[in-house]
Each structure stands twice: as C-alpha cells, then as structure tokens.
Specification:
The complex is a heterodimer of chains A (about 190) and B (about 400). Helix content of chain A is about 35%, strand content about 20%. With about 190 residues, chain A is α/β, with parallel strands linked by helices. Chain A has a single domain, classed as Pyruvate-ferredoxin Oxidoreductase, domain 3, CATH 3.40.920. Chain A has a six-stranded mixed beta sheet with strand order 2-3-1-4-5-6. Chain B has about 400 residues and is an alpha/beta fold. Chain B starts with a strand and ends in a 5-residue tail after the last strand. The chains are: A alpha/beta (about 190), B alpha/beta (about 400). Chains A and B meet through helix 1 and strand 2 of A and strand 8 and helix 10 of B.
Chain lengths: ~190, ~400
Amino acid sequence: MERQLTEIRWHGRGGQGAKTAALLLADVAFAIGKHVQGFPEYGPERMGAPITAYDRISNSEIRVHSNIYEPDFVVVVDDTLLHTVDVTKGLKKDGAILINTEKSKEEILPLLKGYEGEVYTINAKDVSMRTLGKYFPNTPLLAAVVKVSGLMSEETFLREMEKSLRHKFRKKLDVLDGNMKALKLALKEVA
Amino acid sequence: MSLKERMSGNEAVAYAMKQINPDVMPAFPITPSTELPQNVANYIANGEMTTEFIPVESEHSAMSAAIGAEAAGARTMTATSSAGLAFMWEMLYVAASSRLPIVMAVVNRALTGPLNINCEHSDSMGARDSGWIQIYAENNQEAYDNFLQAYRIAEHKKVMTPVMICQDGFIVSHGVENITLLEDEKVKNFVGEYNPEHSLLKDTMAVGPYATSPYGMEAKRAQAEGVNQAKDVILEVAKEFGEISGRNYGLYEGYCLEDADYVIVAIGSACGTTKDAIDELRKEGKKVGLLKVRVFRPFPAEELTDALKNAKAIAIMDRAESYSSQGGPLAAELSAALFAAKSKAEVKKIVYGLNGRDYRVEDAKDVFAALEDIAENGNKNPFEYTYIGLRE
C-alpha cells in the first residue's frame, strides 16, 4: 500500500537507541527525497525508563508538530515493555507492529491485547551478534522496519545505506561490511 | 544553488552560527539549548569556525561576557533556555540599555516549577520587557532563516538593540526535518562585516554609566526608539533575505486569513499544527484562518489588528501563564491593541501547551468550533480564559 504519509511510533528504553533508530529511518527516507520528521518524546531522562520516538515520512511538506496518536506502524525495541506500555494504542488495523524479541511470535501474540493488524518479530540481538559480533539492535531493526512498512524497496534501501555507511565509516571499512551484512540478514529474518 | 538537508532546530541554528562565524561566543549549557554551544565548540575544534568560545561558569557570566565583548566591538552571540535565561535577567537589561547588538538563540523551555524541560514560552515571554527584540520560529527552517537575519536587524544604525531568536524546545530544537540551507558565500555577503560606529577599542567612552534623574528618562526613550525603528528594519532585512532565499517573512504570517471569520493567533510550532486543522476545516467550507506572530518585540499592534479586521471571533493562544487572571502575555497585549483599534470581534483567550503538553490538530479544531459558538451566541465570559487539554 502506497501511503502519502507514513507515521511510525517507536517504544524503547532510555539508552537503547530508539531515538537514534528513528532518526536513522528519517535519514534514509530523506535520502530518497521524502519529507521527514524524526523526534523524541522526553519524559524523565534516565537509563532504562520507557521512551517514545516518532517518524513522519511524507510525499509533501510536514507542518504538524504534535506527537503521533494513530500510527501506521509501531516498533518495540525492548519486549519487556509489552507488559507495561500499551504499545498498540491507536495503531491502525491496516498497519503493523514490529517487535524486537528473542521469543517466538506465539509467545508474543497474547501480550498484544488482541491487535488485529499484522505482527512481525525480529531477533535483532541474534542478527547483530552474528554479523557485528556485538549487540547493536538499531541496524537490524532499521532494515526490519523498512521491510515491514514498505517505505522503499530493499534494493533502494541497501543502496542508500551503503552510501551513507561508506561515508560514515570511510576509515573503518570492516565496520561497513558488518553493518551491510546485518541489514541484509535482518531483511531475511524479519517475519 | 541551495542545499537540501535534514536537521534539527538546534543543528540548523548552530549551522547558521557557523556560517556567520561571529567573533565571540560566551555560553553556559542548559537543556534543550546545550547542542548550540556544543556544536559550535565542535566546529571550532574542527577548524570550521574562528569564533572565540568562552566557557563561563553561569548564564549571568555568559551575558556579562557577551556585553563586554560586544562593547569592545566584537560581533557576539550566545544561547540559552529557561532557568539560564532567568539567570541572565539583570544583564539582559544592561545589554539592551547599552545598545549592544548581541544575538541570542533562545530555545524555549518552561521555567521551574514543576521542574520540567519541555517547551513553554514562559522564559522569553518573561523577558519581553527587557528591551530585546524577539523573533519566533514555527520550525527549523524559520529558526535558521531568522538567525541569519538577526545581526542585520540588531546592528542596524537605527536599531542597535540585541535580538533573541526563539524556537520551541524539543518540538523544533530536537525534531529532525527537511531544511534548505544557503551557501556560505551568500550568507557571508548577506550578513556582512560588523563595523560598529563606537566601541571601547576605538573610542574613549563609558558603557553602562550611572544616569541621574535629569538624564535617565531620555536614555530610556532613546532606547525605546531603537526598538520602534526595528519594525521597518525587520521588514527591509526580510525583503532582502527573500531575494537571496526565495523565502519571505514579515512581522506576522497570515494563513487563509483574509476571508477568515474565525482566527487563531499563536506563536511558534503550534502554528504548523493549526495550518493542518485549517486545511481540513476549509474542505468542510469553514472560514477559518491563522495569524502567526513572528515578531513579538517590537509588538506590531497596528499590523496585527489590521490583519484581524475581518475576523468575527479570535482565539489568542499563549504557551505561557501570566498569573494575571487574564490569560498570557500575547492575549493581554493583543486584546489591548484590538480595543485601541475599536475591534468588534469576540475574543477568546487560551493557555495551552504548558510544560510541553501536546497541542494536536484536534485541539485546533475544537478551538475553531468554540470561536464559531461565541461568534453566534456571544462570549458569555469575556473575562475568562480557558486551557487546552487541562485535566480539572
């Protein structure tokens, strides 16, 4: 489904990089010519506290400056939040939720309060450990959300990411390699 | 060729600071403006700026050092928010009355308490009578553009008054959005060199001397003239800026305003949200519009009341509480101006967004519905002001 405006809400905990992931998504959408908005919602600033971040990605200028209450997609960076935060609140039925978890989808589904839209999971830890040797959940999650939301084709996404990572890691090309592997594996693993 | 980028409001203003490359920046960090001195310090460390950065021990010292630097003839800037601005209070008046064209980036944040880091206009609104010019932005593009125009206004011979360039904390300062930047060369040519007529390094002069009663009142009158003259200068500078950027600015912006019966008057990021509400309501045939106040000091009373002359009902919205039982400062000043202009419009005073409370498209629609109601049935409580999204 081609949306004029795609709205995404991220749930994470302080220090896990949900805000960074939201900004990375805005970056790659900007790179393909979209109008973007990526912003965090700050509560008490401390490690581990639940935080929310948002993305608006549009074909036209974005003027609204409020939070997102009826997102098309929700990304949950930490599955322990499923017990404490109403992550599917306002989530559109024709949208989807993406959860980073080591658990199976069957174990996750009962925690989603009967959400009727599509549910995707990814084990970003496993992807990250296998490709980068360290736990950086953002890279696999970014690939997963691009695939789930259909914001751009996988080819376009990988091409743009390689361009930007090549610039960012121009002195550490082995890191570039690991990140590209993480993105590709995540595109396969998300289901 | 202009440059398409995506940046947060803080990144955008820091980029403007880099392009202008003023002589001196004394600053003390405070959320949510910390990224401004931080990014400038990075630019300096990377050799992209030659500004003399002075890490001071407080905001009072930041403004004091800015006054000293500017009095010496150096183009000077600083940045702050909330309690940091409050801590500068004494020195804000010294800067303005000494006619020192300092430019300060203010990232609007609530004053304590309750202790809160989110957006409110209470910090800069509290400083509205300090003698500084105040220009507000709806988004990162405007924050960038306003900062580029600031020195031309402040340093103008007829003005010689410091300027605050305000943006909404977090909503704009930490939100990444598309932006179009100007090339360095264009900015350099537009802003120009700073050659003060008088400065401590060139002249024998007193800065901030004592004035006895036979002289002090005239000094204040002369100071007020600088602020009054700023209106024309702001428009001249905006016109020239429009020629190099293609982006046009005035003292205010009207959106669907000319034929609007029901008008929201607001400042800052809430205006973008209101525009979306207007587009939806216009599709239903509702004659609604927005008046966005860009320049709050000098207060463009005649221009604003003239722009509102066709409105039947007006909501004046403040992101600050005055504890005056009369709503916020914009409501108080614009209501007084509407009275002077003999306006017949019904006025609704509203306080919203305190401590970062979200203002949504639905909220704007509710305000327009309330305006329709008072236009038809009259305002039964003209002395009352209301809140958006308050839990009583």
